[in-house]
Amino acid sequence: MDAEITRLKSYRSSAAFRLGPRSVLPAIVIAALCAVPGRAGAMERGPRGDVQAKLGYCMDCHGLSAEGYHGYYPIPRLAGQQPEYLENQLRAFAEHRRTNNIMFNVAHSLSPSMVASLAAHFKGLNPGPIGGGPHDRVGQGRAIFQDGVPDSNIAACSACHGPEATGYGEIPRLAGQLYPYLINKLTNWDKERGQIRSRPDTSAIMSPIAHSLNRSQIEAVAAYLSYQR
Question: Residues 119, 87: contact at Cβ < 8 Å?
Fold first, then answer.
């Protein structure tokens, strides 16, 4: 498995990989490599060196600066994310409150100290956004983010995520998040978040909002956020 990851890193640096979303290697292949059981646990042996090793492992999927991967299977940006949010989400993956088999295999083997170290590292990263959303939808998305949709009783996104979409505490940063990733998450919110009804978390706040937004509105908000720094 280490040999496969080494080959993948070499490929990421090649001209073929830099083709981006039209790359001949779909990101789902990367995700499959990350999902192999035992790989995540094998990375956590000893203090500082293991944090660096685990960060290298995260880069295989989330990018060298945690900017995300804008391909066939979008992998989210972690750079600049709120540590408390990241820590909560890793616990949610491990506890099956949030469904994702790939991230379960990663998260369930991490110690609390490793989770805190990773979250703190990602918070300090600030690469430029990948973008990718259609420019002609940005204006509508900005209006929804800042003012909501009053006619549909949908609150402004900025009320929780902040005027710059940087989040706070358990409320995530959305600025610079990948366009297709945001669309996918908002469209499938109830299928992936808050899956243990007896243990509700902050994902419950978003459930009625995600349900109320139509596809066009979701695409517009995602387009706007994909370019925010």
Answer: yes
| Single pTM value for the model | 0.79
Tell me, what CATH number does 88's domain have?
1.10.760.10
40 and 145 in a common domain: no
- From first to last of the 229 residues of the chain, give the pLDDT tens digit: 444 444 444 434 443 333 343 333 344 444 444 444 444 443 444 455 688 888 988 999 999 999 999 878 899 999 999 999 999 999 999 999 999 999 999 999 899 999 999 999 999 999 999 988 999 999 999 999 999 999 999 999 999 999 999 999 999 999 999 999 999 999 999 888 888 878 878 888 899 999 999 999 999 999 999 999 9
The whole domain housing 195 covers 135-226
Task: Supply 190's token pair.
Answer: 């109830």
Residues 157 and 144: beta-carbon distance below 8 Å? yes
Residue 107, helix vs strand vs coil: helix
Q: Is 104 part of a structural domain of the chain?
A: yes
